[in-house]
Amino acid sequence: MSENVRNAGHDDWLDALESGEGYYLECGSGHGLLPPRRVCPHCGSRELSEQELPETGTVQAQTTIHVPAPSFQGDAPYSTAVVDFGPVSITGQLVVGDGAAAVENGAEVGIAVGETGQGERLVVFDAT
Amino acid sequence: MTDPRVAGVGLTHFGSHPERTSRDLFAEAGLAALDDSGVARDDVEAVYYGNFMGELSEHQGHAGPLAAEAVGLTVPATRYESACASAGVAFREAVKSVRTGEQDVVLVGGAERMNNLGTARTTEALAIAADDLYEVKAGLTFPGAYAIMADAYFDEFGGTNEDLAHVAVKNHANAVPNEHAQYQREITVEQALDSPMIADPLHLYDACPITDGASAVVLTSPEYADAHDFDANVAVTGTGQGGDNMALHDRASLCETPAATDAANEAYDDAGVTANDVEVAEVHDCFTIAEVMALESLGLFEPGEGISAARDGVTTQDGQVPVNLSGGLKAKGHPVGATGTSQIAEITRLLRGDHPNSEHVENARVGVTHNAGGTVASAVVHVLEVAN
Questions:
Q1: Is B334 a residue of the active site?
Q2: Do B120 and A10 touch (CB under 8 A)?
Q3: Is A10 in the B-facing interface, judged by CB distances under 8 Å?
Q4: In Å, how far are A2, A10, A11, A117, B8 from A5, measured between CA atoms?
Q5: Closest to A69 (Cβ–Cβ): which among B120, B147, B250?
Q6: Nearest to B240 by CA among B50, B78, B95
Q7: Is B361 strand, coil or helix?
Q8: Distance (Å) from the alpha carbon of A48 to chain B's nearest alpha carbon
Q9: Is the separation of the CB atoms in A128 and A95 below 8 Å?
Q10: Residues A92, A125: contact at Cβ < 8 Å?
């Protein structure tokens, strides 16, 4: 696997998120999914369409990771959360401003694309 | 339907053996299982082998034939990979084969070499059992994923770190007499709570260790066992497997494991038993919270009630349903690809009466194993019963 080759679907999704045009895929039954997808695993629908991702979501659950994988060495401790955007939930890093209080579950957060200490793109949830 | 018999079991010591290859580990466990069974080498028709991360830790693929060769066999051999449920899945496939009459005698097991990678690279290797694009690239580790499940569980049902610590204390106490266990020592609730935080709310003592080891089981048809007058008194009466979305965020609940619930229901129906019949269980406690969710998926406790089971003594050695009398993944250790069949081996020893903890389940006739892959995107449950 070459680090220079894009992951079609996923990198396109990050591009869109980065340019403020985040989206998710929705099937005919209203299930939310993240690309690449050709079929909804919940109902089998193949009618998938891009829908605008809500600007904010609510924190479902979170953790602060103290022992990271080597690709996140130097970033720890950092907080990772699952955030509910309604039809779709997303995993990303929870960013809290300096001196700000910890984010509680149920709090509203925004979504953007950030960078790891090693320069890789990742989803971030902005609680500031 | 014919219920396969567990004719023999074998385990290596589970621990830190970074210099030992998985082929050597499996050879020890496999040969021990064959010796335990009394089955003639020439009667073994196939090898079912569980291994998760051999490509990463040993640069070795195509591990099935290699594992078979290690135990002196050149029979058809297949490697099964389903993350931490690899050997459980291999065992289920073996059970199905013996049941159909396709094969009468098979060797099933698994092995994993992990400590040669060190902690950081093992953490990275284990993470490939999660969704790489949407979880791993977000920085989620396996302890992190289970920590999120614990956080969600506490929010949904309540519970504390102290409740989880009691799970760790229980399983360490169980491991003390188990000669195969990585940690044959007791710990206290205070030690567990004071151990370093790895992923809030999970501390180091909420997590299973990094383990090298292997396990193996000889499975035969009852006709073969009877014809050869084997003392194979433990039968596999139920098997079930379930699946779920790979990424946690795609699931309806972050604190329930429906794949394991489905696997348990299928296995119970297959065996003609219910959760009420279960007298002893080995469950997949890769983290303390995982044992809690396993108990609930197995139907031993209602959702939200598994959290207090260890603290209240219901799942301890002399409790109503002793859980993880081997020490579990937590204290016996978790050589990922070997864990599923090690649970089969331990329940077999417990039901046969030759496990160092058999005294706690002297009259037990029904045992259950629960083996999970990833954050339980895959799960396998088996019911074992005393045959006569």
A1: yes
A2: no
A3: yes
A4: 6, 12, 10, 20, 49
A5: B120
A6: B95
A7: helix
A8: 16
A9: yes
A10: yes
Q: Do A69 and B119 touch (CB under 8 A)?
A: no
For residue A16, what are the contacts with CB-CB under 8 A and spacing of at least 6?
A22, A23
d(CA A25, CA A31): 8
Q: Which of B13, B166, B284, B334 is catalytic?
A: B334
Give the span between the Cα atoms of B328 and B371, in whole angstroms. Answer: 11
* Both structure tokens of B237: 């009466």
Distance CA B278, CA B79 (A): 30
Which H or E element spans position B168? helix B161-175
The band of B231, judged by pLDDT with boundaries at 50, 70 and 90, is confident
Interchain contact, A66 vs B196, CB within 8 Å: yes
DSSP classification of residue B139: T
CA distance B134 to chain A (A): 7
Which DSSP helix (H) or strand (E) runs through B202? strand B202-203
A67 interfacial to chain B (CB closer than 8 Å): yes
- Residue A3: its pLDDT value, please? 61
pLDDT at A1 over 60: no
| A119: its two tokens | 């320069």
The fraction of chain B above a pLDDT of 90, given in percent, is: 97
The tokens for B254 are 């972050």
Rounded Cα–Cα distance for residues B388 and B57 (Å): 43
DSSP assignment of B13-37 equals PPB--TTS-HHHHHHHHHHHHHHHH
Residue reference for tokens 């349903």: B321
| Total residues found in chain B within this entry | 388
Of B121, B134, B151, the CB nearest to A63: B151
pLDDT tens-digit map of B35-66: 999 999 999 999 999 999 999 999 999 999 99
Rounded to the nearest angstrom, the gap between the alpha carbon of residue B259 and the centroid of all alpha carbons in its chain is: 15
CA pair distance B258, B293, nearest whole angstrom: 10
Which of B56, B131, B239, B22 minimizes the C-alpha distance to A9?
B131
Using a CB-CB distance cutoff of 8 angstroms, which residues of chain B are in contact with residue A123? 138
Using an 8 Å CB-CB cutoff, list chain B residues near A66: 196-200
Q: List, for residues B77-91, the tens digit of each pLDDT value.
A: 999 999 999 999 999
Burial class of A11 by CB neighbour count within 10 A (0 to 12, 13 to 18, 19+): middle
- The owner of tokens 């290797």 is B125
Of the candidates A126, A122, A110, A128, which has an alpha carbon nearest to the alpha carbon of residue A54?
A: A110
- The answer, as to whether pTM is greater than 0.95, is yes
Which among A31, A63, A122 is the top mutation candidate for probing chain B, defined by the most B β-carbons within 10 Å of its own β-carbon?
A: A63
Partner-chain contact B147 A90, CB within 8 Å: no
pLDDT in tens, A75-117: 999 999 999 999 999 999 999 877 677 899 999 999 999 999 9
Q: What is the pLDDT of residues B195-213, one digit of tens each?
A: 999 999 999 999 999 999 9
